[in-house]
Amino acid sequence: MGKLESSISRLVKILEKEEREQDEILKLSREIIRGCSVSIKCIHSKEVNECDKQIKLVEKLVEKMRKADGFENIALQAYQEYCEARVLLAIIKREEIPTYNELKVPYKAHLLGLLDCVGELRREMLEELKRGDRKKADYYFSKMDELYEALLPLRFSNSLLPNFRRKQDVARMQLEQARSEILKY
C-alpha cells in the first residue's frame, strides 16, 4: 500500500470514529430537546415538581453532551432548549435568571434560549389573565420586558449570532402583543 492509500485508510478510521461520535451527539440532542419540551409542558400545567424531576434528567444528558468535542453546531439547539427551560423554571419559581456560566452552556445558545423564553412567558401571562390573577400576569409581563430589554443592546450580524435578530424581532412582536393583551384586562 502506498503513502496515499495508507493516509486515506487512516482518515477513514478517523472519520468513522467522528461519525459515531456525531451520531451519539444527535441522539443526545434529540433526548435533551424532548426532555426540555416535557419540562416546559409541566411548567404550563403547573406541575413544577414534575418539571424539576425532568430537568434533573435533562441535566445528566447535558453533562454527557458537554464532554463531546467538536460538535458545537449540532449541540447548539439542545443547549438553547435547555436554557429556555431552565430560565422559565427560574422565573416561575421567582429565582434569579441563570447565566450561561451557571448553566455551563455556550453563550450563543443562552442568548437564543432567553429570547425563546419570552414566548413561553407570554403564554403564562395569558393563562394568568384567564384565571383572573392580574398580579401574576403583570409579573410574567415584566419578566418578558426584562429579558427583551436586557438583550436589546446586542446588535451584531447574523454571521456572529445566527438567528438572533429574527428571534429578537419575534420577541419584540410578542412583547407588543402581550402589552395590548394585558391592557385589555
Radius of gyration: 20 Å
CATH architecture of the largest domain: Up-down Bundle
Order of helices and strands: HHHHHHH
Q: What's the mean pLDDT score?
A: 95
The tally of helices reads 7
Approximate strand percentage = under 5%
Class of the largest domain in CATH?
Answer: Mainly Alpha
CATH superfamily of the largest domain: Translin, domain 1
Explained architecture:
The chain is mostly helical and 185 residues long. It folds into two domains: 1-99, Translin, domain 1 (Methane Monooxygenase Hydroxylase, Chain G, domain 1, Up-down Bundle), CATH 1.20.58.190; 106-185, Methane Monooxygenase Hydroxylase, Chain G, domain 1, CATH 1.20.58.2140. 81% of the residues lie in helices and 0% in strands. It contains seven helices and no strands. Helix 3 (72-92) packs parallel to helix 5 and helix 5 (107-131) runs antiparallel to helix 6. The longest helix is centred in the first third of the chain and has 42 residues, at 3-44. The protein is elongated, with a radius of gyration of 20 Å. The mean pLDDT is 95.
